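In practice, a research group might receive sequence data for several interacting partners and want a quick structural hypothesis before committing to experiments. The following worked case mirrors that situation: the sequences arrive first, and a predicted assembly follows.
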Amino acid sequence: MAPTRDVAVVSYASWTSPAELQRNEVEMLMPVVAEAVADSGLPREEIGFTVSGSCDYLIGAPFSFVSALDAVGAWPPIRESHVEMDAAWALYEAWIQIQKGSVDSALVYGFGKASPGDPSEIFTLQLDPYTVGPLWPDTISVAALQARAWMDRTGGTEHDLVEVGARSLRNWAWANGVDLEPDAVDELLAQPTIASPLRPGDVAPDTDGCAAIVLAAGDLAKELAAKRELRPAWITGIDHRIEPQALGFRDLSVSTSTALAALTAGVGDGPVDVAELHTQFSHEELILREALGLEDGANVNPSGGPLQANPPMAAGLIRIGEAAARVMDGEAGRAIAHASSGPCLQQNLVCVLEGEDA
Amino acid sequence: MSAERVAVVGVGQTEHRAVRADVSMVGLVREAAKRALADAEMTWTDIDAVVIGKAPDMFEGVVMPELFLADALGAAGKPMLRVHTAGSVGGSTAIVAAGLVQSGVHERVLTVAFEKQSESDAMWALTVPTPFQAPLVAGAGGYFAPLIRAYMQRAGAPADIGMMVAVKDRLNAIRNPYAHLKLPDIDMQMVEESPMLWEPLRYLETCPSSDGACAMVLASERVADAASRPPAWVQGTAWRSEPTLFARRDQVNPQAGLDCAADVYRQAGITNPREDFDCAEVYVPFSWYEPMWLENLGFAAPGEGWKLTQSGATAFDGDIPWNPSGGVLSSNPIGASGMLRFAEAANQVRGAAGEHQVEGARRALGHAYGGGSQFFAMWVVGADKP
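A structural hypothesis for the assembly, expressed as tokens:
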């Protein structure tokens, strides 16, 4: 037994902002969902399945996904589900439902606002509530442990970390047509650390934002893409794995769950033109490159990646959207996307997208 | 393109109590998972993937608790998903887990749902005022009571129907060793004399707050055929959602519930629910939701649901027993309550329901709902392959 249906990304829309104080989740989502649905060419009521990813704690209320349904227009009633995970996992759930054969298309969306709270405190509540959480280690300090473990194992330096952040900023400026002269690596290195060895440029910014993707199967995907003279971004492999959370139970300098997911998804079966990685800290890119077996020259995070815009619960789905967009516009023949959840890359999803018919 | 067959080959649940101070969240989920694995005659290493579900994280005060629970549930190195669809989540989680097998991706999936309400305070978590949202007003009962009053008026139902359901489900719970509430002396008078919480709902017409977990092992046809204990074959699954509030919405008899039932009945070939099912485990957190869902699920015509309850048809010895386990009114670990309905339905058709076994049950309905009566998840399980 193995999944047999060809499934592709046929449209993608996203929106991010350092802090959106004027609009709530629904108002933030409505134009993005509307754009992805319109671009797909499928009437909203013909989309077979809808699934989202979000986290209640970001706004401190029990059911943030419930009101978000207003952004979709769930009437007549729709087939719908929700994961309390980054929406990249919602996309996996949509892919499963299409593989099951009960639907031919799906709308996936994810959203998160960092601005109402302090994500580095909120996500501390992910840690074991009996033994680790009560110590209140903030997420940046926990990530710094992993950065240090990577440096200790590889002999890498803070210079290597800062270079990742600097390249991310250059890519973001290029992708958005912004004319800027990023600080030289030496100047970045002169900044004080937030949590040693991490400096401001090594840490993803607090971001509000959301994303939406429409998936379609086989001939439907071909037909929809042809209308727009694009090619579908076929999902030729997707898998996700989790590790124990306890920081002492695993080698923090590597990502075994990413390597396992990459193996099942077939990352190594061909060249990688573009890789969009959910790197919320600079050292994570270096660990992930190794786990994914990427060549030094691989084009990683041409969008700038999460170090420039990291809306919680949507940033992983945005990686899939950005990778798919590069395939759909013909810039990349084969792209990979990665999403992560939990402290120190605890849980990882890897998705391979290809332009030629799967 | 048809889905692979999937069956329930193992079921486990915890003893449900107001406070399970003897276990952590880790201990609670493992108690249910280990029982499901033992029932399936499997070990942790046999499992391909884990799907966990629970209601809002504020009920325990841990953000995405599946992350810290992953290792304890044997998920290290495996795929793990976390579902959250409000009160329907236990049912939705089972449907997601079933999908992993039906899609052909996995052969043995462990699914777990839990709530440890004693870690926090669900009433508080449900009452947080949120900008731009209608407040729930003192928990779920405050939200649902006006809908119940609307139902009573619309159906012309006698005032004591809710109390009959409260007595029936608590008497059923006496046969269920895992149930939270055990009230062997319950009768109409005891219910009537209990304090009025939200007119017309009295204290004893309301579900308890429980700590508890439920787990199932779902398996492919190949694995289920080789199992030594009888499997419960999944004959259909369906979910539907609609928005909380808008002008045309009928919250008493929601369209999403009607559509969901029609979908799952079509898949399973159900044309007359009262005759085609041998029993049903339906999400009834407040007594009056039995007659309301009897109508929404097509067991009775609109306005006639209360007559089934009144006639005793839904009692343990009636022609269509509803909630022989005692239901949500007797045990309510919120995130697990929906999965308990799905799992109890499975155990009925496996002949594994113990003292609350409905004799000869071969086909059963599992049902869950959540939010403002807007999220629905259902499955039909049977002793026979679909």
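Before designing any experiment, note the following. The radius of gyration of chain B is 19 Å. Chain B has a mean pLDDT of 95.
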